[in-house]
Amino acid sequence: MTSLFTWQGLVTYSDAVLATAIITQFVKDIKPISRIPARLLSYLAALTVLTAATAVTLGFDLKALILNVINSVLVALAANGAFDAVNEAGIKRAK
User: Fold this and answer.
1) Which among 23, 33, 58, 86 has most CB atoms closer than 10 A?
2) CA angle 79, 27, 40 (to 5 degrees)
């Protein structure tokens, strides 16, 4: 069976966005986590995904961590935008 995600894939923009969106949607309704705003939650998910994937593939590096802090903003915004687009398309079809 082919893996859905690989560590090498998770350092790419598209896989990081997809993983962030999936993780955010999966955990956002868990009681203690549900108090965290969705955008902050998706940022934390993106930061976790990128940092873990970078650490596994390249090793832990302070310079990479700093870039992950910035890149996580882009990944989270893309994940949020994709979710909003899908959600809005579903609402339009229902009318």
Assistant:
1) 23
2) 50
Q: Is the pTM of this model over 0.90?
A: no
Q: Are the C-beta atoms of 47 and 66 separated by less than 8 Å?
A: no
Name the one residue in this structure whose structure tokens are 């650490």: 55
The C-alpha atoms of residue 17 and residue 40 are separated, in whole angstroms, by: 15
Whether the Cβ atoms of residue 82 and residue 24 lie closer than 8 Å to each other: no
Q: pLDDT tens digits, residue range 12-57? A: 999 999 999 999 999 999 999 999 999 999 999 999 999 999 999 9
Domain boundaries, the chain: 9-94
Task: Express the helix, strand and coil content of the chain in percent, nearest 5 each.
Answer: 80, 0, 20
Tokens of 90: 């579903």
3-state secondary structure of 8: helix
